[in-house]
Amino acid sequence: MLTRYQDAKWALQSPAQFSSATGVEIEKRTKHMPQDTRASFDICYRFWYTAIQATDAPRHADQRKPLMKAFTPALIAEMQGAISQRVERLLDNLQQTGTADFVAQFAYPLPSLVIFDLLGLPAEHHQTIREAAAAIVKFPTAALRSDSSQVAQIAVCLKQAEVVLKELILQRRAVPTADLISTLANQGDAGSRLSDDEIVVLCNFLLTAGHETTANLLAGSMRHLLSERRLWNQLREQPELLGNAIEELLRFISPVLWVSRVMTEDVELDGHVLRKGSRVQVGTGAANHDPSEFKDPETLNLTRSKPHSLAFGYGSHFCIGATLAKLETQIALSGLLRRTPDITLESKTFDYHPVHFLRALKTLQVSI
Prior knowledge:
- By secondary structure, this protein is mainly α.
- 55% of the residues lie in helices and 7% in strands.
């Protein structure tokens, strides 16, 4: 486990020694599973460990390249209006209820709706794809625990999503529209085009990465801003701080706590040898609270100078949707500060999902 900022940063920027292809390690757990679970495991494995975050060059570059053409600054800027509309509708619903679970009624749906708009996913399929994205993040923990029952449940959700996405891919090849599924389905010639299976995995990954992490950031931000009311009031009085505040919230909350790597060779670090083939957990959450890198790291300081966190990773695997996530968070927090200035927390205790690598609140009860 690497928990210091400089060690974590070094690992993330050294893919030749710290491989992202961690599936080889997780496969060892299959020997503890019943044979009839293997088919379910293989489905889950394909969705998680052949996706962009778990691959190395050149496969990683082959997957990242088509996405880079979609996540351009111009396209993200064009999405600002659509994101604002989504935020306003969710705020309308919040204000009608008086009390609400902020996670279920705002933080959770907003990022998925933005990704659905990007993909061009019809509303009738939203729930199926949402359930698949929520399920897949539980797979590494289920595999590490050799939890055959949970692996089987996750696989069912993924198969349902695959049916929907493959049908949409066929439709968009026949009649392309202005969305990411059409771009992925029709980009390149027959020799370089992504396969249907690869597009399905990429679409599911985009929702998982763009949905879960941003939802965690939004919920965590509201928990801490409202717990320390002076911070909420500070943003109300100085809205120009919001951009920097989001960088600090990313550092402080660290929506992704751990990323995994596998050593490709023996590497010595401070007298310890990280052996070839061993799994290394890179503690981005701990690194973002390293006192040698950040003064008073346990203080949420909205005016902190350049809080250069590892919340979006570093190096070749730096989050492709970082700009979009920050834009969503800025529009969402701006709307909340403007329309719900007196929002308050209804609870002083907070439960998180038992997913070891995410900082994900289960609920956040608020009064509007």
